[in-house]
Amino acid sequence: MVFTFKNIPFSVLDLAPIVEGGSAEDTFRNTRELAKHAEKLGYNRYWLAEHHNMPGIGSSATSLLISHVAQATSSIRVGSGGIMLPNHSPLVIAEQFGTLETLYPGRIDLGLGRAPGTDQLTAFALRRNNMSDGSDFPDMLAELRRYFQPFDGTQRVRAIPGEGLSHIPIWLLGSSGFSARLAGRLGLPFSFASHFSPENTIPALEIYRSSFEPSEVLDEPYVMLGINVVVADTDEEAERLSTSMQQQFLNLIRNKPAKLQPPVESMEGLYTEYQKAALESRLSSSIIGGPEKVKAQLQAFIERTKADELIINAQIYDHKARLRSYEILANL
Q: Does the global pTM surpass 0.85?
């Protein structure tokens, strides 16, 4: 099979950026507008990610924001990319997503990760006495999936709503090999974070595909890759817009998360040589440019990875430019 971006779905990963000079209220309004825009453009799904204690990301109450998006749209799938399961009781997530599926039937995805989505101090504030290292993630996942099964008269703890909704798609998310192997063994769809862990992409996909066992969910592997794409009418404008994303990652490398900053004309002078190398490594799979450049690089990325779907992250400071980026991409 020849893999081209014309025969695979594109989706949206919204990190709900809170921009410098903006507020969470602005972010939620922009998220709603972007979701409606993405639906009109034909994007397949719209996912929001759980992060905590990050001034520049507004999607900490992920399930609430999923409902906000689903209410504003009518056909696009809406879900989590992802819910960090060790931060929560599996029962609570079953109830939350059972509620979402009941409100918006046939449109909800449950993407799950095993990382905290934050620093260790905040993880403790979230989890209190359950300071999981992620090794119990398979057990938590099994418990969660049980809550979605139909009532057979024996369950003493039931998820209501949630019970009997085992058709809710469960995805495993990862940035290394652990979830890749688990997703393969369970026959679940797998989404990999190429947008911040590009060096692990191919090894993780090899693990997933080689360990895949058909299930009642999937007959064969299904991979969706997260990727940063910033596209504008010219290469130069796209490069300028992408400096907001670069500043955001640079602040994370420095362990000083901040709001999404306005673009700058050049990143030179803003980082040390070590930080520059770390930034380039973290963002090495990012695709930035005008339509023709992005089209060619996307084609090469899809051929290299054989992805079944791409989920696009566009950390762009100006909301109108962000809408335009997704529009150009959809029309390539």
A: yes
